[in-house]
Amino acid sequence: MKKNERTCYLTSIYPITTLMLRSKTVIAILLLSIMWLPRAVAQNPLDKVCSINLNNEPLKSALDKLTAASGIKFTYNETVAKSTAKITIRAKDQTLRDILSTALAPHPFSYTLLDQEVLIRYDPVKSKKSGPAPAKPSAAKYTVSGTISSKQTGETIIGATIKVPGTTQGTSSNAYGFFSITLPAGDNQLAISAIGQKSALITLVLTANHTLNFAMEDDSHQLQEVNIGAKPRGARDLASPQMGVVQLSIQETKNIPVLLGERDVIKTIQLLPGIKTAGEGIGGFYVRGGAADQNLILLDEAPVYNASHLLGFFSTFNSDAIKNVSVYKGDMPAQYGGRLSSVLDIKMNDGNNQQFGVSGGVGLIAARLNVEGPIQKDKSSFLISARRTYADVFLKLSHDTLINRSQLYFYDINAKANYILGTHDRLYLSGYFGKDVLSADQIAGINWGNTTGTLRWNHIFNDQLFSNTSLIFSNYDYKIDVKQDINDFTIFSQIRDWNLKEDIQWFPNDKNTISFGFNEVFHTIKPGEITASGNSGVISQRLENRYSLDQAAYISNTQKISSKLNLTYGLRFSAFSVLGEGNFYDLDVNGNIIGASHYTSGQVVKTYFNPEPRAAAAYELNENSSVKASYTRNVQNLHLISNSNAGSPTDKWVASTNLIKPELADQFSVGYYRDLKDHQYEFTAETYYKILQNQVDYRNGANIFTNQPIETQLLYGKGRAYGMELLFKKKTGRLTGWLSYTLSKTERQIDGINNGAWYNARQDRTHDIALVAMYKASEKWTLSANFVYYTGDAVTFPNGKYQIDGGNYYYYAERNADRMPAYHRLDLGATRQLKKSAKFSSDLTFSLYNAYGNKNAYRIFFRDNENDPSRTEAVRTTLFTFVPSVTYNFKF
Amino acid sequence: MRIHITYSILLIVALLSSCQTAIDLKLNDTTPQYVIEGVLTNESGSCKVLISQTKKFTDDNSFNAISGAQVSISNNGTTYNLTASSAGVYQNSTLTGAPGQTYQLNVNINGKIFTGTCIMPQPVALDSIYLVKDNISNNKDGSTRKNVTVQYRDPAGAKNYYRFVQYIDNRKEQTVFVDDDEFTNGQTVNNRLNYSNSNDDPAKDIRPGNTVTIEMLCIDAAVYKYWYSLTGSASGDGNNAAPANPVSNIQGGALGYFSAHTIQRKALVAP
Q1: Structural domain harbouring B162
Q2: What CA–CA distance (Å, rounded) separates A445 from A674?
Q3: What DSSP letter does each residue of A636-694 carry, written as one string?
Q4: Out of A530, A537, A875, whose CB is closest to B154?
Q5: d(CA B15, nearest CA chain A) in Å
């Protein structure tokens, strides 16, 4: 009877699945009859073979004819276009590389590959190459800075690359599209490129600092090709010391098949090495052996405390509203702090400030609508994106009165507005509101949800100094309602943050980029408020609120030591103060209270100071490969205490107290990065070793629902995690995708658990493989597939059984010494473009989750055999086998 | 409190047949462990200690008795020896427990010593028992499902722990009902005993004409902890992230418990 209440909620999702599977009339059958023919895989444009004869053709016209003959486009500026140089070519079945080398040899022009195009540029140095190169006088330097945005939508572009062609010099736009680069005076060229955008070449004659606000054009061609991370050469920052980072633009996730057709960034990142799913139907994820609560999940800088809907089947992030996702696997830059394992930084779209647009989708389980447009063209815009599931409609089909009177749905709304105040200032206001409701005919129910709000102010002090000030609000709460006979119970719990954050980026010269700032967060945790009426005798009560002030300041510099060596070094310093009002306790080793002190409102109970150093280095071996190493310390003062294996909306967030110490992690990592075949392929190998301190877990037999101080139920210990992550990615062509493999080990040691011996953490998975493939079969069809395989979780199975009071119970010898069966699954997807015009486009997305119906174990439990009570049996619960879905998406 | 919530949510779950299949799972067997279940109540003839050993998961469910143990319970300097009445069952017919007294269990199995101490709590009166209609579900045949509610007044001055045992026509319900007064101190408590019947066994339901008997046991804190942790983490339900052996009040490395508790009974005939 006193079963662990948490996961019981979870199982209540089963009716949806069951119902879905039965509702064959509404489910289209996925057809994958189109062959997987790897036609015309993109090659390096310079390897393109063609034949052409030109005699003293003006340069521009020669290039046009070369395009006609080879199909390869050229990019060049006015200087090239107006050049009077005459080109002569006699080529038969020669590569474009050879043709250009010969043809341009006598002229002051050179060529470079720029994505799938070839850049021709004026190169005065070239003609002087034969002579002894005169030492260049150290001329004056100037700064070019500005904001990169999209011409079509006005959205700022994150991570656009700004490079000086043919050199190693370059930078990329920050989270607000801002960049700053210092260049020598005189003639300069800048190549600007970004995913899904047409690359551009800009010529500048610098005689002073220069502002360059540049609007890029959508490259529809590229979009159709389903590129993942297709950036021009060197775009993957081999030179940057940042390790363990993954950037995804939301377009990249569009074609990956998902459960019930709901695109989901959190599910997508779990296909990358080092990031592991917490399991089917479970919202959390594990990064490099860390627990699910050790991931900092930010939505427009606001922390999201419970990032899952419907008990973990869907994430709280509506892909329609998201612009960009970055994941840092432990090596987070100094501006992030507060969690040990990772940062998942999600940025919402700003809203189109050029034209009004509506997009949306209707799927089996949910409908979405996204509306955006200018408030004042070029100056301000808004975005509202909402979705709601209608799984409960299916429940109504059931004959069972309890099921058909149940509610089970979620909805969420993302809203954002931004306003350009002038050339130097921009304001953003964004918010998120989501709610999940699960109830059974007004008898028992739970609802929970997150609310976040962010007000941000970008200010450009000057060409070299960019500032962002954020005021952030974040709230998570849940409420449980239960009616029984004449009794009525409710339980309410909440965590709420007010957060002020200042981040400054300073680009003092071409060698250094300095970030610094501070962060002040005030946390209020309401552990539980119980109201009861009726005759149960339960007394309404409120557990003491917990207050804390979380402060941090940081500074970090990325320094170019030489053309090959780059360093990042910095320090984050955090001070976490536990504040009154409240009672704080002293405990003996068995968790019994032996003393208590009362603190008044605002009185400091304890402050934890922690320096968090970061250091990283990258050394470029050549233009295609580099090695990197890094060390990072992270500190965590908010702990999620859970003893269910699936996570639940009612898991407890607890702040550090006088007894609960900050969790610490030290991570060392080294990596090797290599681009192959002119950057069409990427290979990454990273290894890490992580030491964890002050890890928190429940005591054996802990009472998870008590009005005693939570510390009486806890134990503390340490952990270690190490592993190797390999990623091989194909970025261009009709067929794109990646193969990822992780080999890892994760252990914990807690006095009082497993006799104090080291044991496998539940998330210890030796092998984890993911294969993702997307194939552009034709103009109309895009096919996709992903396959995952991983070692089963480390779990504790019975090592014997015995009788107590006539009932059977199980004996356990060692913590997590057993394994769930290995998990594997293939998903298939197909997208059919229906209509595509400038005004309206629509598509149908089909997916088949678990295509070969493998019966993966969601849980394994043990019971008396129902047919033969003299025996016990092991029973496997499976959630999803063959889940087809179809979604209709539109945009106008 | 948690009982009610758990129950209600469980019921939602119980209605749903997810895909469950019995599987062959290779489990590692370990050296058998001793299991000691010692009970002493304030009723005469109740003193009984069961001694057994763990079995392999694949074995049958019979009681794996250990014979030849030396068992005694001492109180206030007097030691009462228990003798085997059947295999693995040790009894003493003269010892009857009294509230407030401290009892010490001593067990010697082939030279291995196990001990346990328990103070018998003061009894709390069971005022009444009555049937209430289940507002969530019916019995499988569509008849109304009924549950017993127990009513008692929890004393304000002490921490109290309770266990209830339900019999339907003398057939014992295996669901473990335990409660404490953490949220109900000093109140009149109406506590509904919700049992699980996931297999829809008609014999578990309360039907017209059935005699329902409820035993109320007042147990001490350590015994409460034992039952609480037993049902929470050793029942094999697969939900707990970390199944573990229950927190026992027996020293020496045996599974089980030693409980000195008061006992009272009430019965009713279902209408």
Answers
A1: 123-241+263-269
A2: 53
A3: E-EEEE--BSS--TTPEEEE--SSSPPEEEEEEEEEEEEEETTTTEEEEEEEEEEEEEE
A4: A537
A5: 8
From CA A302, how far away is CA A654, in angstroms rounded? 18
pTM for the full model? 0.83
Q: Domain with A855 in it: what CATH number? A: 2.40.170.20
- A441 contacts in chain B (CB < 8 Å): 136
For residue A366, give every residue at least 6 positions away whose Cβ sits within 8 Å of its Cβ, in sequence order, or none.
A260, A262, A314, A387, A388, A389, A390
Sign of CA dihedral A296, A297, A303, A305: negative
B137 close contact with A: CB closer than 8 A: yes
Tell whether B171 is within 8 A of chain A (Cβ): no
**What residues are paired with A295 via a beta bridge?**
A342
Among candidates B19, B32, B235 on the partner chain, residue whose Cβ is nearest the Cβ of A809: B235
Give the integer Cα–Cα distance in Å for B118 and B220.
7
The answer, for B203 touching chain A at a CB cutoff of 8 Å, is no
Which helix H or strand E contains A10, and what residues bound it?
A: helix A5-11
Among B178, B229, B256, beta carbon nearest to A701: B229
- The answer as to whether B9 is a domain residue is no
Q: How many domains does chain A have?
A: 1
**DSSP helix, strand, coil percent of chain A (3-state; round to 5):** 10, 55, 35
Please state the separation of Cα A437 from the chain's center in Å. 26
Task: State which of B57, B92, B119 marks the end of a domain.
Answer: B119
Burial class (CB in 10 A: 0-12, 13-18, 19+), A496: middle
- Does residue B237 share a domain with residue B127? yes
Sign of CA dihedral A98, A103, A107, A113: negative
Consecutive sets of 10 residues in chain A, 892 residues long: mean pLDDT of each? Answer: 31 31 23 24 69 83 82 76 79 82 79 74 59 52 90 87 82 89 88 83 87 82 38 62 82 75 83 87 86 92 88 80 89 93 92 90 87 91 91 69 74 93 92 88 81 95 93 94 85 94 93 95 93 90 93 95 92 96 91 92 95 95 91 95 72 91 96 88 94 90 81 93 95 89 95 92 93 91 93 92 92 91 93 85 89 89 86 88 86 86
Q: Which residues contact A135 (CB under 8 A, 6 or more apart)?
A: none
CA distance A171 to A162: 5
Tell me if A708 is assigned to some domain. Answer: yes
**Half-sphere exposure of residue A759: CA atoms within 13 angstroms, side-chain side:** 23
Q: Do A489 and B4 touch (CB under 8 A)?
A: yes
| Chain B: closest CA distance from residue A326 (Å) | 30
In B, minimum Cα distance to A485 occurs at B135
The tokens describing B190, both together, are 């109406």
The reply to whether B137 and B235 lie within a common domain is: yes
What does DSSP assign to residue A871? S
Shared domain check, B42 and B105: yes
DSSP structure string for A299-364: ETTEE-S--EEGGGTEES--GGGEEEEEEESS---TT--S-SSEEEEEEE----SSS-EEEEEE-S
Q: Give chain B's domain count.
A: 2
Distance of CA A517 to the CA centre of its chain: 23
Query: Residue A388 has which token pair?
Result: 């709601």
| Residue from the list A489, A539, A802 with its beta carbon closest to the beta carbon of B5 | A489
Residue where a domain stops, chosen among B68, B87, B119: B119
Q: How many of the other CB atoms lie within 10 Å of CB of A92?
A: 9
Contacts of A491 in chain B (CB under 8 A): 5
Cβ–Cβ contact B250 with A under 8 A: no
Distance between CA atoms of residues A63 and A72, nearest Å: 10
For residue A252, tell me if it sits in a domain.
no
For residue A19, give its domain range: 5-31+304-891
| CB-CB neighbors (< 8 A) of A714 in chain B | none
CA distance A661 to A716: 9
